[in-house]
Specification:
Radius of gyration: 16 Å
Helix content: under 10%
Number of helices: 2
Oligomer: single chain
Strand content: over 45%
Number of domains: 1
Number of strands: 15
Distance between the termini: 22 Å
Length: 205
């Protein structure tokens, strides 16, 4: 079914600043362990309003993302009607980027767990928290000379998740849920405005 959404998007991983996965496809330390969150500003699927939906997820890939075999933990904060509309999008039952690509790299999904997700939207100082199970606290870079906030962008014209992401770091990037865990503070993070839809499809092989 047709769907679309605009959202605030938050991402943090175990790569060094800038995250080479976006350039070479391979992570800084041989594996990728990352967390994302997003909150829908506006959107719908087949007439169901998705405004206000919050999603948080974390994935552990044993190698590069495109090599697959990822283990995902998925949290959703939405009404029952929104849950029913959202899950076909997140599982790529309804095609469209970025989920059409991301789900193809995951072989084990824990959840979805339907529970409260706290998101504090504060640019590159934003926070995503799911109880004591998952937390990402972003931190803006500061100029080492004068201490002022230092804004850095990564622009990816053909990016399937985002095309312009503000790079930052984290003071917290923690997961401990359903037997899946990691802890990677002080590494790469992105803050972005995104637009996703069923009209944005993966190119044919």
């Amino acid at each position: 079914m047709a769907w679309k959404m605009t959202a605030k998007y938050y991402e943090a991983c175990n790569c060094e600043l800038g995250c080479p996965c976006n350039m070479s496809g391979f992570p800084s330390h041989g594996k990728c362990e990352g967390a994302i969150g997003f909150q829908v500003i506006s959107g719908d699927r087949d007439g169901v309003d998705l405004t206000g939906v919050k999603v948080a997820s974390a994935v552990k890939w044993p190698g590069a993302i495109h090599e697959g075999n990822g283990t995902m933990v998925l949290f959703v904060d939405a009404t029952e009607e929104q849950q029913s509309a959202l899950m076909p999008i997140l599982t790529a039952e309804d095609p469209g980027l970025p989920w059409e690509i991301l789900t193809a790299t995951v072989s084990d999904i824990h959840g979805p767990f339907f529970e409260k997700i706290e998101i504090t939207d504060d640019g590159t100082d934003s926070r995503v928290k799911v109880g004591d199970k998952m937390e990402v606290q972003m931190q803006t870079f500061t100029n080492p000379v004068n201490g002022e906030k230092h804004e850095v962008h990564m622009v990816i014209p053909g990016g399937f998740i985002f095309t312009d992401g503000r790079i930052c770091t984290t003071t917290v990037n923690h997961l401990d849920a359903d037997g899946v865990s990691f802890d990677h503070p002080g590494k790469n993070a992105y803050y972005c405005d995104v637009e996703w839809s069923s009209e944005n499809r993966m190119a044919p092989a």
